[in-house]
Amino acid sequence: MIDQRVTVYIDYKSPYAYLAVEPTWTLARDYKVALEWLPYTLDIPDFLGSAKVNNQGEVLE
To answer: Which residues contact 41 (CB under 8 A, 6 or more apart)?
Structure first.
């Protein structure tokens, strides 16, 4: 029985998070811990700012 649990926050749309999935499973297996996967959504416009687009949706800047 696994007593230790690691909470993993992941944004499935992120390529960086995608690259972390397999090493995270390896960590869980090596250290015999359970993983609790929880969604995390990075609000890109709030973090980096929104792109300016024209009426056709084309990026201006």
So the answer is: 11
